[in-house]
TrEMBL record:
Residues 1180-1223 are annotated as: Disordered. It comes from Hornefia porci. Keywords: Cell wall, Membrane, Peptidoglycan-anchor, Secreted, Signal, Transmembrane, Transmembrane helix. Residues 1-35 form the signal peptide. The lineage of its organism: Bacteria, Bacillati, Bacillota, Clostridia, Peptostreptococcales. This is Gram-positive cocci surface proteins LPxTG domain-containing protein.
């Protein structure tokens, strides 16, 4: 440009400034049809507009340049521009020209008008890395049908709408980095597009500040990246038109939060396709899909959502092929799922080398599935999910599709991660291809495939596995593969039988019934029931559902007693069949042979080693009811209009329930039960009434009496008036009640008080020691008692009386509607406490007011409830009932204590350590509600209570004053071995067999040497630093059991007796005989409360203790040379508590068993390591005396020749080997074991006291 033109331009600028000033001051008025994009700024950065290569000819506005340009021309601009004026229209590039941003251009609007509009084939581009920045517009850039935005950097921030694609308008660059568009900090929708618009080769970033942008049109991205914040997508159905198409593209949508209706990031109501390496990310919520979604070689990601991930609904489907589904920080709701509404035809399917990645921690959120009849299908891929087969199995467990038999699959982790494909066997017996080329993000491969399960059964009630357990063990693998091809399987090892039966190996029967040896490394092609084979007989009980229970029988027995069904199910819960009532056993599965009752005998045929018995059942029947929940149904209700279908029953409070006359069997659906009756009539009765309440839900019944259960709508209906929805058709698995749901009538006065305090306490053996730590010996059962002071409850009853002061003495005139009260006590046990499946629960103080409710166990929590008794329909009845509740206790004044005791608790030795403290905590929460009516006056009462620890029983270990708790001190036994021996007289039978004449009677004696223990006790007492006389003891208990087993051939007395060396410590409690076995039980003679007394009695015992069992006879017809043995076992326990002078508690727990001493080992036992206590005798047949000869009476009689001594050359204990013995012979058992236990325990008490 020459100097002439520069001067001219400067003059034009001055004129423009003068003109603008005149306009602003009102000296000159201006009227224009539209505003123009015009240059602004100083000379150096002022905007410039020109056409083609002619930079000399510039234009004042973009519109003038467009008017001057011909089709195909290029209009260039650069520098700073403004939207000139406040009219409604900006610059229109409305012909087939190219608008080129030659250098960086900035266009600022004043917020009242649109910016640039491209139409009729116009194009926009930035050259040489230039950028176009536009802000302050209603819509900064509009791209009309046939127009394109090409490569460049477009910064469209700070507008109401950054850009709008209209019709077939496109963002079409040569690549994602070549065309970038930013529409952030937008005050309105931020951007818009039409279904025919396209995003191609570009990167777009959009932000709507108010989070209220709504987009309804189909979205198509090709080699593009789109990120949006504050935008909600609702892709409206357009027939078969694809509503979301990502081709080699990334779409990242943050959940919009501007309206409560924005539950999802997007809803797709039609087909969608994500392919060729595309990534769809939903951040903050779920995607609802009701069309056919196809994800191919791509990824779908969900982040930071508590509302779920991919929600397949209303007939939608999703097919993942060689694709990845990822969940990051998901909470509360599954990552993927199908079938919530209109489930028929819905499915989510993974095939090829697909992958699902989650943290695999939350079994709800890091998981997925489908509600039937929707389908969850997997035929390929790796799935890192938090799957739990015990949690919603039918929902979270996929199948392998109809072509493979729709079999439920099992999730395995492959041992070899280099495997890229599998060929599992489906339920049809055919192999199919399962691809798994890609690992999950933990670098492992987790596959959903058909399983072959191997169950290892001991087949012997006296046997245990190598690890000491007795429950069946299982291993499983991919059907058609080895057990070691997947992780998690452990070989069972060789089991052992406590009676010494020999294990012959693991076996199973093939489909033909032939027995085969089980080989761990074989490929498993079907489920195998593998059993341990023993050198014994068995009775095999079958439950008819694939479970068996094996009862061992001695190999020499020809008959055995049949077990009861309940006996078996107590030992093996898997044996129980739901919905069935056991009748009897038969020898055939069909039940056509003779009935065999428990307690009867079955025989083994010659050569038979196994007998099979099959359970036969009756079906249990269940009642299905519809409850008015304290109210009454109207006379026009479906229940009262169909007396042939329903029976109306009234509860004690007058509430009505409609009971179906037909009874259900287990698994029967409601529709099957109703038969021809129209289930659509099962709507809640709109005319039902309940004093003080209004019907809360006119469509749904509820499974919970309090309305907090699952809702059921039984009639068919249309969702949103569009989608056909089938009514619920639940399976019946027990007595079932569906309740009406009520809400408070706001016209009734409510008197409410919540959070009132109930003083409570928790103890074990005695309430008097509730504050003290309680010793629990490992292996023993114990009980816990929780109690509350209900004085506050009774005070509230008085409060109600005062509300109706005018009826004092006539409380029966106050009617009560739906009186309810539930108190819930929860005991939380620490790890280390074992809770039985069905804890023993008893209550005190319920009176005529409460009844003990259900008890449930959930993990380490025991929940017990007691509820208000029915029939309290007026206030006088309620008052009398409440007054009857409570018993006296130190917890409360008067008869105001209610207590619950839970028994049968135990300890888990594998999870506890000796002297470990475990804290049990308890909570109690209660409520009472009723509507009271006197004449026309209604009052609703609603009270609630919670318990806190009373001051008197607070745990000495408690750190807070309100927590109800009790501390247990675990005492694990110290295992000790005692030396023992059996003798006849003083003969240990160590060097030679002891000989006994046939026909003689012998006495057995057991001996224990306790001298070393006495020496240790003395030493400990002498060395104890404190005053041992001040140590107190409590709960000192000791029981010792000696078992003497006689070999057949030895005859025990019918009522055997036993005697013990005289001592001040132990006495014999019982002597019992069972067959050839004698069991002697000993216990302490007295209770010990002082260590000094215990010390005196222990040290006063002689160094050896003997216990004698007399009267064992060797029959006279026993053959000479017969060897007969006696074996013995001694076990014992000693437990107690010692309290030092300072009050420190120590628990002591000892468990003993005796082993044979070296010097007394049976002559017949050659193994030097044998510990068996045994004594063997050799029977000698006594020769008859020779008769006198009377032939020569005058000659003196010849004396008889004396008997020849037996082995006279062997000497032992001054008398040689054991002599022939008669009635005077003694045989020893172990009386001293019990003493030894106490000696050692007492010594250890002293030792620990001294150390403390």
């Amino acid at each position: 440009m020459n100097h002439h033109h520069k001067g001219k331009n400067r003059r034009l600028v001055r004129y423009a400034a003068i003109l603008a000033a005149a306009v602003l001051t009102g000296a000159l008025s201006v009227t224009c049809a539209f505003a123009a994009i015009a240059p602004a700024g100083s000379d150096g950065d002022a905007g410039k507009i020109w056409i083609g290569e002619n930079r000399e000819q510039t234009y004042e506005t973009l519109d003038k340049a467009v008017a001057a340009a011909g089709e195909g021309d290029v209009i260039h601009l650069q520098g700073n521009f403004r939207e000139d004026g406040a009219a409604a229209k900006g610059a229109a590039v409305n012909k087939a020209v190219t608008l080129d941003v030659a250098e960086n251009a900035v266009i600022n609007g004043d917020g009242t008008a649109n910016g640039i509009t491209l139409s009729n084939g116009a194009k926009l581009r930035c050259s040489g890395g230039a950028s176009l920045t536009m802000s302050g517009f209603k819509t900064a850039l509009t791209v009309g049908a046939g127009s394109i935005v090409q490569d460049g950097k477009y910064v469209l921030d700070g507008n109401e709408i950054g850009f709008a694609l209209s019709g077939t308008g496109k963002l079409q660059g040569s690549g994602r980095s070549a065309l970038t568009v930013s529409a952030k900090n937008s005050s309105g929708r931020a951007f818009s597009y039409d279904s025919a618009s396209r995003f191609i080769g570009c990167t777009v970033d959009v932000q709507a500040n108010k989070e209220l942008s709504e987009q309804y049109n189909a979205l198509h991205l090709e080699n593009a990246s789109l990120t949006t914040k504050g935008v909600w997508y609702y892709f409206n159905p357009q027939g078969d038109t694809v509503l979301l198409s990502l081709d080699h593209s990334d779409f990242y949508a943050y959940k919009a939060t501007g309206a409560s209706a924005y539950k999802q990031t997007m809803s797709i109501f039609g087909p969608s396709e994500i392919k060729n390496g595309s990534v769809l990310t939903s951040d903050g919520s779920r995607i609802t899909n009701t069309g056919a979604m196809k994800v191919t070689d791509s990824e779908v990601v969900f982040k930071n959502s508590y509302a779920g991930g991919l929600n397949i609904n209303y007939g939608g489907t999703a097919l993942f092929t060689n694709s990845t589904l990822t969940g990051v920080n998901m909470r509360s709701t599954p990552l993927y799922g199908a079938g919530l509404n209109d489930p028929k035809g819905q499915f989510i399917k993974f095939t090829g080398d697909s992958v699902v990645n989650t943290p695999a921690k939350d079994k709800t959120a890091d998981n997925g599935g489908a509600d039937s009849p929707a389908e969850y299908i997997v035929t390929g891929g790796s799935f890192r999910i938090a799957y739990d087969a015990g949690y919603n199995y039918d929902v979270t467990t996929p199948t392998n599709g109809e072509e493979n038999g729709n079999e439920r699959l099992t999730l395995f982790t492959l041992t070899d991660t280099s495997v890229t494909g599998l060929n599992p066997i489906n339920k049809k017996g055919e192999t199919y291809t399962y691809s798994v080329a890609k690992a999950s993000d933990d670098q492992k491969k987790h596959v959903w495939v058909p399983a072959a399960k191997v169950t290892f059964r001991l087949n012997n009630g006296n046997a245990s596995f190598a690890d000491g357990t007795t429950k069946n063990k299982t291993a499983q693998t991919i059907r058609g593969y080895r057990l070691d091809d997947v992780t998690g399987n452990t070989r069972p090892g060789d089991p052992s039988d406590s009676d010494g039966s020999r294990f012959l190996g693991w076996f199973y029967r093939d489909s033909s019934g032939a027995e085969k040896a089980f080989v761990w490394d074989d490929k498993i092609t079907e489920d195998r029931d593998v059993y341990a084979k023993w050198d014994m007989k068995t009775v095999v009980y079958h439950n008819g559902r694939g479970e068996t229970f094996i009862s061992p029988v001695s190999s020499d027995k020809e008959k055995t007693t049949v077990l009861g069904y309940d006996v078996i199910t107590k030992q093996s819960s898997e044996f129980s069949v739901p919905g069935k009532q056991f009748r009897y056993w038969t020898k055939d599965a069909a039940g056509k042979t003779q009935a065999i009752l428990p307690g009867s005998e079955v025989s083994f045929a010659q050569g038979e080693i196994s007998c099979d018995l099959y359970a036969q059942y009756d079906d249990l029947q269940y009642q299905v009811s519809f409850s008015a929940n304290g109210g009454q149904f109207s006379d026009t209700s479906v229940f009262k209009q169909n007396p042939d279908v329903f029976e109306i029953q009234k509860d004690a409070n007058g509430g009505e329930t409609a009971v179906l006359r037909n009874k259900a069997t287990y698994g029967q659906t409601l529709h099957e039960l109703l038969g021809s009756f129209d289930y659509n009539k099962l709507k809640p009765d709109a005319g039902a009434v309940k004093t003080g309440s209004l019907l809360a839900d006119r469509n749904n019944w509820n499974s919970g009496e309090d309305g907090s259960g699952k809702s059921y709508r039984f009639d068919d209906y249309k969702l949103f008036g569009i989608f056909e929805m089938k009514g619920d058709n639940p399976e019946i698995t027990g007595d079932t009640v569906y309740y009406l749901k009520w809400k408070d009538d706001p016209g009734v006065q409510t008197i409410e008080a919540s959070g009132m305090n109930l003083p409570g306490d928790l103890w074990g053996r005695s309430q008097s020691t509730s504050s003290k730590t309680e010793v629990v010996c490992d292996g023993e059962t114990f009980s816990l008692t929780g109690a509350v002071d209900i004085s506050s409850v009774k005070e509230k009853m008085t409060y109600i009386e005062n509300m109706f002061s005018e009826v004092q003495g006539d409380f029966a005139s106050i009617g009560l509607t739906d009186p309810r009260s539930v108190f819930t006590a929860v005991l939380t046990m620490p790890e280390g406490v074992k809770i039985p499946d069905d804890p023993e629960v008893s209550a005190e103080g319920l009176g005529d007011c409460f009844v003990l409710g259900k008890t449930s166990v959930d993990g380490q929590k025991i929940t017990v409830t007691f509820t208000l008794r029915g029939g309290l329909t007026d206030y006088q009845k309620l008052k009398d009932a409440v007054d009857s509740a409570g018993v006296e206790s130190p917890l409360a004044q008067g008869k105001n204590t209610i207590s619950l005791t839970v028994g049968g608790l135990g300890t888990d030795g594998g999870k506890t350590a000796d002297e470990q403290k475990l804290t049990v905590t308890g909570t109690v929460n209660g409520n009472f509600s009723a509507v009271a009516k006197k004449n026309d006056e209604l009052k609703r009462f609603r009270f609630s209570w919670s318990a806190t620890q009373s001051d008197t029983g607070r745990d000495e270990n408690a750190t807070g004053k309100d927590t109800i708790q009790h501390t247990l001190l675990i005492s694990k036994p110290m295992e000790l071995i005692l030396g023992g021996d059996i003798l006849i007289g003083e003969d240990t039978e160590h060097e030679a067999l002891h000989q006994v004449n046939a026909g003689d009677t012998v006495t057995y004696t057991g001996r224990l040497d306790v001298s070393s223990i006495k020496e240790q006790i003395q030493s400990l007492k002498d060395n104890y630093g404190g005053d041992a006389d001040k140590i107190t003891t409590d709960r000192v208990r000791s029981t010792f059991t000696a078992v003497l087993t006689m070999e057949d051939g030895l005859v025990l007395p019918e009522n055997p007796t036993a005697s013990l060396t005289d001592n001040d410590l132990f006495e014999i409690r019982s002597v019992e005989r069972e067959g050839q076995r004698v069991t002697i039980v000993m216990g302490l003679k007295k209770e010990y409360t002082k260590f000094s007394d215990l010390y005196r009695d222990v040290t006063g015992v002689s160094d050896t203790l003997d216990m004698k069992v007399p009267g064992v006879k060797i029959p006279a017809d026993t053959k000479g040379g017969t060897k007969l043995k006696v074996t013995g076992e001694v076990t014992g326990t000693f437990t107690g508590e010692a309290i030092s002078e300072a009050g420190t508690l120590k628990a002591f727990n000892y468990r003993w068993k005796a082993e044979q001493t070296e010097e007394g080992r049976d002559f017949m036992i050659q193994d030097p390591d044998s510990k068996t206590i045994q004594y063997t005798i050799s029977v000698v047949k006594k020769a008859p005396d020779k008769p006198d000869t009377p032939d020569k009476p005058d000659k003196p009689d010849k004396p008889n020749k004396p008997d020849k001594p037996t082995n006279p050359e062997k000497k032992k204990d001054e008398g040689g080997i054991g002599p022939l013995t008669g009635d005077q012979t003694s045989v020893l058992l172990w009386g001293g074991t019990a003493l030894l236990a106490v000696l050692a325990a007492a010594g250890l008490i002293l030792k620990r006291r001294r150390r403390s």
